[in-house]
Amino acid sequence: MKDFGVISLIVLGFLFLESTILSNIMILPAFPDLLLLLTVYISIHRGSIYGQTVGITSGFLLDFLSAAPLGLNAVIRTIIGFASGFFFLTLNTDGIFLPALIGFVATVLKAILLGIMGFFFPNTVFSYNLLSGSFLFELVCNSLLAPMLFYLFSRVPALTKKEISERKL
Known about the structure:
The chain is an all-alpha fold. It is built from 6 helices and no strands. α2 crosses α6 (133-154), α3 (48-65) packs antiparallel against α4 (72-84) and α4 crosses α5 (97-120).
């Protein structure tokens, strides 16, 4: 239960940071998707169920605070949380290169999923142009921030899977 509270506070903190501060900095063509990186990290370290739960929760909260159709971010982040869960406890996210690669792949996957949704709902869904400056800026930001955020996430016990030997009996 304590883990749920900590994860909820981190999601709400990142949601506040993304929706009120980063989105209002006018000199940025796009802003990093901190909640996407959190969803991927939790999926890799806690499993697919946790990643899907964080993905759908953060996605719905983003949908409520943005002009996106209700459920769009929730579906995309749930799929990314599920897909990242395939790498549950198999990737070492302690370095620099692998977290940057994970952030890169997650951002590209988000853009591809938005493109697929945009194909089916062309009038309501904003999809990325994969060669646009705003997408490339977000891609670089997510790739550069992922190692730093993953390091910070690794210091929060609620975000990492407890091994059987570390659990209290």
